[in-house]
Amino acid sequence: MKNKSPDSAKVRPVSAEKLHPRNPHRGRYDFRQLIAASPELAVFVSINPYGDESIDFADPAAVRALNRALLIQYYDIQGWDIPAHYLCPPIPGRADYLHYLADLLAEGGVVPSGVRVLDIGTGANCIYPLVGQRTFGWQFVGSDIEPAALANAQRILDANPDLSGAIELRLQRSPQSIFNGVVKPGEIFDLTLCNPPFHASLAEANLGTGRKWKNLGKGASRALNFGGQGAELWCRGGEEAFVCRMIAESAQVNCLWHSSLISKSSSLPGVYRALNNAGVQEVRTIEMAQGQKKSRFVAWTFYEASVRRDWCVKGALGK
């Protein structure tokens, strides 16, 4: 049974100035090793103005090729690719989210195995299940509202037959629902994670794309190096509304820790209010960093500390 919560959520901020200590992407990219793993990357590598080997991060094809090489070298993922214009995730940052989630389960001890995770909006790239399964051996369910995105994710899984029993894909048929229609009756998860659409409208998403291209020194463009389209980038009300819906529905899901990335710090007050209204036991805000880029995720649980310890110690994980 879930325990009653205090009147207000216990918010515990945690900060980090570098990638997680376990993250294998903490150092510079070793392009010689990456090219050895994926020779097609070679055509995109050149010497930058600082005298280092690099790629043009404003080139979507180069970014996809880099991701493909990283997935081969570090995670033994074969045949990874995404259709044009779909979200191409920066793998070091995505791996960081998973490592900090693992710390939530470890609670200062050993990262557990036998974990079941629900990835909300897994997308065509399926990056969290791929990296999470290879890193920790966890079991994943990935949901999405786009059949085409799931079809591409399934193609990646088909290219890696050993993952067939570890990652399951499910279609969310209702764009207004998060967990409803995806989580089966009586189903238990240890973690949920989400990279929500962070813009409130298509116009706002286009403005954001323009700002990123300007920061890359490339002027205006209709494409973006890391891609993204439709529901990947925007929904009515933006990330705050999406995460608030997620919080409201999460109260009905049997899960130890729920979580979501939060792109905008301005979304946090509304998210915290929704968490208080939902009656959670504890909230963790984990600040992350990759170079100059700052990001964060918010995690919440409906269980008090003693129940969380029993959940892990007594083997509730993955059941």
Automatic annotation (TrEMBL):
Cellular component terms per the entry's GO annotation: cytoplasm
Keyword match Transferase: yes
Enzyme class: transferase
Matches recorded under SUPFAM superfamilies: S-adenosyl-L-methionine-dependent methyltransferases
Pfam families, sorted: Methyltransf_10 (PF05971)
Record region (Disordered): 1-25
One GO molecular-function entry: 23S rRNA (adenine(1618)-N(6))-methyltransferase activity
Alphabetical UniProt keywords: Cytoplasm, Methyltransferase, rRNA processing, S-adenosyl-L-methionine, Transferase
Compositional bias annotation for Basic and acidic residues: 1-20
Residue ranges of the TM segments: none
Highest taxon listed in the record's lineage: Bacteria
Catalytic activity: adenosine(1618) in 23S rRNA + S-adenosyl-L-methionine = N(6)-methyladenosine(1618) in 23S rRNA + S-adenosyl-L-homocysteine + H(+)
Entry's Gene Ontology BP terms: rRNA base methylation
Database matches in InterPro entries: METTL16/RlmF (IPR010286), rRNA_lsu_MeTfrase_F (IPR016909), SAM-dependent_MTases_sf (IPR029063)
Cited PANTHER family: RNA N6-ADENOSINE-METHYLTRANSFERASE METTL16 (PTHR13393:SF0), SAM-DEPENDENT METHYLTRANSFERASE (PTHR13393)
HAMAP family for this protein: 23SrRNA_methyltr_F (MF_01848)
NCBIfam families for this protein: PRK11727.1
Family of the protein in this entry: Belongs to the methyltransferase superfamily. METTL16/RlmF family.
Protein name: Ribosomal RNA large subunit methyltransferase F
Gene behind this protein: rlmF
